[in-house]
Request: fold
Amino acid sequence: MMVKDIIAAFIFFTRLPLGRIRNVPADSFRRVVAYWPLTGLLTGGVMSAVYLSAVYLGFHAVIAVLLAFTGRLLLTGALHEDGLADFLDGFGGGRTREETLAIMKDSHTGSFGALGLALYVLLWTGSVLILVHRLKGDEYILFLTCDIWSKWCASQIVNMLPYARKEEESKIKSTYERMSPARFVAGLVSGMLPLAYMPVSGSASVLFLAGAAAPLIAMLFLVRYMKRRIRGYTGDCCGAVFLFCELSYLLTLNCLWTFS
Reply:
């Protein structure tokens, strides 16, 4: 069953055509969030490979970072960015719980979503660009760590909050299950892999480990905020929380490096 759940996670969180090769039961998609960090091994790995390939081919670091970001967008179909836009529109434009949920379900992107996405891309790109200059030769660990660890942190919202809508109102016509102890451990091990293997220098590895607290804090803050506003989470919230967690990690690493 775990193998089918893992395949379902890659089908759901990426655009890999695994669904054409292997059929998985619909029930497996209720447990995909537990294996979200595992998909980060692929998405973070793709960003690393694209960045290093672009640098090797002589592209400027700015172009290499943007190409790495684009590589993840293509691999995921901008799934998380779509969630962030809906989240910002809903929480920015909605005054009541009902208004917030209704706006988030609307497929159109409003001012909050558009401006928020633009600001997110600028902050993400700027933060990564500064950090890759400080990690000459080990840039790949940045893409892997931020992606995988932030996905594990974000995945915990399904354990801490109920689904905010009725099951039949969700986009996938189903809701995520809370993680069993075995699935929790599997996700945690996946999330900590890049932190456990840190080939950078001693001081840099300490900064990476210290910065890992930022996504956890961001997730807990967002959980409290969502509980107060909509008394739960939605699929869009999952994607938004991941990107907020990742951005908090990148910004914190920049701050730690500046004052270290």
In short: The mean pLDDT is 92. DSSP finds 13 helices and no strands in the chain.
